[in-house]
């Protein structure tokens, strides 16, 4: 097997994009919260999740972990000149409101908040009830 050449893995250069307005997509599940900040066309500029910020296991699903993830994503987006976002929230998790509040606290102006949680028209059978 031939040795791998260094030229094949060239490091990607991070460009400052200078986008003023965009969208913040918050996906909050029972186990994790993922915050993606995109430009108006939907290309991801910055993202963060509870696990990526440093939380593991059951701590990922806490509102505090969602707050830290949203702050991290907002800071990275502001490096590209982001000032105003429209928020789209998806999922039933505990970090929804906290993530929106921390986006505002980080200095992003929140224009509109929309819930885009997909609801089935009686599709798949849900998992059975937990007996604790």
TrEMBL record:
InterPro entries: Ribosomal_uS11 (IPR001971), Ribosomal_uS11_bac-type (IPR019981), Ribosomal_uS11_CS (IPR018102), Ribosomal_uS11_sf (IPR036967). One of its GO terms (molecular function) is rRNA binding. This is Small ribosomal subunit protein uS11. The keyword GTP-binding does not apply. Part of the 30S ribosomal subunit. Interacts with proteins S7 and S18. Binds to IF-3. Gene3D superfamilies: Ribosomal protein S11. Belongs to the universal ribosomal protein uS11 family. GO terms for cellular component: ribonucleoprotein complex; ribosome. PANTHER family: 40S RIBOSOMAL PROTEIN S14/30S RIBOSOMAL PROTEIN S11 (PTHR11759). Keywords: Ribonucleoprotein, Ribosomal protein, RNA-binding, rRNA-binding. Located on the platform of the 30S subunit, it bridges several disparate RNA helices of the 16S rRNA. Forms part of the Shine-Dalgarno cleft in the 70S ribosome. GO terms for biological process: translation. The lineage of its organism: Bacteria, Bacillati, Actinomycetota, Actinomycetes, Micrococcales. The keyword Lipid biosynthesis does not apply. Residues 111-132 are annotated as: Disordered.
